[in-house]
Amino acid sequence: MLLTLAWGSLFFPGLFALCTWALRRSRPEWTDTDCVMISTRLVSSVQAVLATGSGIVIIRSCSNVITDS
After folding, report:
1. Cα end-to-end span (Å), the chain
2. C-alpha span between 36 and 57 (Å, rounded)
3. 30 with 23: CB under 8 angstroms?
4. Cβ atoms of residues 36 and 59 within 8 Å
5. For residue 23, how many C-alpha atoms fall within 13 Å in the half-sphere facing its CB?
6. What is the pLDDT of residues 14-33, one digit of tens each?
7. Which of 5, 29, 31, 52 is the most exposed place for a label (fewest CB within 10 A)?
8. What is the sign of the dihedral through the CA atoms of 39, 44, 45 and 50?
9. CA distance 36 to 44
10. Where does the secretion signal sit in this chain (predicted)?
11. Dihedral angle at the C-alpha atoms of 33, 39, 42, 47, nearest 10 degrees?
């Protein structure tokens, strides 16, 4: 569990920094605020997709989600 937390603590800020850097290089006419806003939305979208995927895996692997552990 701690390993997953550690990887998540590195992955999401790293993805944000990479997206912000790439947007600043590819779109120099955009302001810093624009780059940060798009990067934030992209990271949030990736997190939502991963959370949905893990929820689907949990629901499909349990016969009763409320009582199974």
Report:
1. 15
2. 32
3. yes
4. no
5. 19
6. 999 999 999 999 999 999 99
7. 29
8. positive
9. 12
10. 1-17
11. -120
At 18, list the tokens: 């990479």
The structure's pTM equals 0.81
Token code pair at residue 3 = 């390993």
Residue (of 65, 43, 38, 67) closest to 54 by Cα position: 65
Residue 4's pLDDT is 86
Place of tokens 């499909």: 60
Q: At what angle do helices 2-26 and 32-61 cross, to 10 degrees?
A: 140
Span 43-66, pLDDT tens digits:
999 999 999 999 999 888 888 878
